Amino acid sequence: MSNGPLPSQLCLLSDLPKKQVGDKVRFLGCVVSYTVRAGVLTLEHRSSGQARPVRALVDANLILESLGRQHTRDGEWVNVIGYITDIPDESHDGDSAYGGVTIRAQAILLWSAGPVDPQQYEASVKALAEAGQAGGCAS
C-alpha cells in the first residue's frame, strides 16, 4: 500500500463529465478567459464527434504564485493537473447561456503546453486509453 498521493488520470477535457467529484485528473485545455478577481480560468477543447461542448472552470487560487501571463492569455493551451470539484447531474448538466456542460476543477499544477495540434493530441490520448495507459478516460 502506498502512502503517497494518487496519480492523475490523463483525460480529454471533453471526457471530464464521465469522472467523479474528487477524481485527480490531467487534461489539456485552451484558455477562453481568466477572471482575475476569482482566480478562475475557463478552458475548452472541442473534440471531434462531441455531442455537446464541455467547458472547465479551473480554480487556480492554490497556484497563483506560479501562474504567469502566458498561462492566462486567450487562446493559450495549458496542461492542468487537479481535482474535479463539481460535475452537474444529468438533470442539470447544461449551461443554458453556454449550451454545453460546465465542469469545475481545482488546479494543483498548471503549465503551458506550447503549440498544440488538438487533433493529434486527441488521437494520442485515445490511443493511450485503448492501450490501458490513460486511466480509462478517453472514449
TrEMBL record:
Matches recorded under InterPro entries: NA-bd_OB-fold, Ten1_fungal
Pfam family, one: Ten1
Domain of life: Eukaryota
Designated name of the protein: Uncharacterized protein
Species of the source: Remersonia thermophila
